[in-house]
Design brief:
Rossmann fold; alpha/beta; 2 domains; globular; Histone, subunit A
Length: 305
Amino acid sequence: MSTSPPTLIVLAGPTASGKTAAAIQLANHFNTVVVSADSRQFYREMSIGTAKPSLAEQAAAPHYFIDSHSITEPFSVGGFEKQCLQLLADLFKAHNVVVLAGGSGLFIKAITDGFDDLPAADMATRDKLNDELAQNGINVLQERLRSADPTYYNEVDLNNPQRIIRALEVYETTGKPFSSYRLATANSRPFNIIRLGLDMDRATLYNRINRRVDLMVEEGLIAEVKTLLPYRHLNALNTVGYSEVFDYFDGKTDLPTAIAAIKQNTRRFAKRQLTWFRKDKEMIWLDAADDDLIKKMLEAIGNQH
């Protein structure tokens, strides 16, 4: 496939929809690499709970932005945009096609469209919001975000307090909703972009999620989270699969309840991911359960040229 300028194939979709396997198939077909756009797989210390590609999968196609950072290094979506665009510029010297795969809509959007410069963090406001979180719980902040910025409320991972606090902080310091700072017009990129979305019927997806969580527990999720207890205050760990196990370690719940909560929160998260990606009118949707998925993906790519 020879195109000029080069082509970025975006492979998006909810958690557990099979993006890793599909991305490797695409990378092998085009003799290229996979760049991860998963906001938690960057972190070396988080592997089981993030469903990171296995070593065998990483050997099947070169992967970037897997284990690239430590949870102790703050890594924002803006930092990802900058580093990933530099990486793509280098990769496109050797490859005409690169696959960007992941379920983090905000991180994918940063690469395809870019962002406005968000206002700098106001530490006093952030501290106040963190105090409210500690005293009143996340529900109060969720409700405030719902009224202040319904657009972002419908897209954000509501189980991630740091994302909610950041949005409220922007709103309270500027008077403008966080969602208004995202670009109305896309930044032009020096590459073509083809967007493929994986989906499957809800029952199948939810069964896959439940099975995956059981597998994570078998593979040692509880032990992994235990090693991360000293870092539990960090943003990266305020996420599904980790916060529920912290509750178990705190004695707030028993293990079966914590595991059930991971499944439920992951299913909710998948629903929100789909809500986000469905707003992208350029996304070409494919049935992830299709036996001929690679063939369908290649047909969709061919039709874009």
